[in-house]
Amino acid sequence: MAREETAEGGFRIEICGGIASGKTTLASVLQDCAMRAMFEDFSSNPFYEKFYLDPEKYAFETEMVFLLQHYSLIRDQVELGELFCADFSILQDEAYANVNLGGERLRTFNEVVAQVRREIGGPDILVKLVCSPREEKRRMERRSRSVEVGVPVSYLSEINSKIDEEVKRVSGSVKVVTIDSERENFASDPHVRRRIGREIRDMVVEGGRE
């Protein structure tokens, strides 16, 4: 959805990428560049752990809760009229739903997404993080979240592919910035952190708002 079709409000950056691709880390980088950052609290979704135990049973409520949580957070920030970034994306919610849902559940999810889009539109900048499924798996093992232990590489690959499809779908109407988070070590290299933060800040300025 083009920016001119979106709700009035602050300049908005959404970050998308696979599991453990570096979304939260990048949002922290932008926060260090004087941007307001919003971070997903996955533990506040009451179905999050249940989903990993029984994905088929709990996928619908898990995806709906994440979507509505993200919608609510973004809407509140848009109303403040400020520059902000989020370590999540409505587009990514759609990608997950396309992997985890089907039939009437997916149709219902898409109806809600359509309403969400009508109310809050799309981001000014969508940052897409690229990271291989095997590297994502290594990172998941390092951060040791118990619910993620059994996630197969094939699932990570499927999520990444759906994110790619969704980004391609909107690339003509939203400014997309692609960062290879496997090669660009913005997690611990201060020079890379500063460079990436500066580059994105420059894009914000070019977009018409400091």
Automatic annotation (TrEMBL):
Report the residue ranges that make up the Deoxynucleoside kinase domain in this protein: 14-204
The alphabetical list of record keywords is:
ATP-binding, Kinase, Nucleotide-binding, Transferase
Q: Where is the active site?
A: D87 (proton acceptor)
Under SUPFAM superfamilies, the record lists:
P-loop containing nucleoside triphosphate hydrolases
Question: Keyword Cell membrane, does the record have it?
Answer: no
Alphabetical list of InterPro entries matching this protein: DCK/DGK (IPR002624), Deoxyribonucleoside_kinase (IPR050566), DNK_dom (IPR031314), P-loop_NTPase (IPR027417)
Report residues binding ATP: 17-25, 139-143, 184-186
**Which GO molecular function, any one, fits this protein according to its record?**
deoxynucleoside kinase activity
The yes or no answer to whether the keyword Kinase is present is yes
- A GO CC term attached to the entry: cytoplasm
Looking up Pfam families in the UniProt record yields:
dNK
Q: Where is the signal peptide?
A: none
Protein name, per record: Deoxyadenosine/deoxycytidine kinase
Lineage of the native species? Bacteria, Pseudomonadati, Pseudomonadota, Gammaproteobacteria, Chromatiales
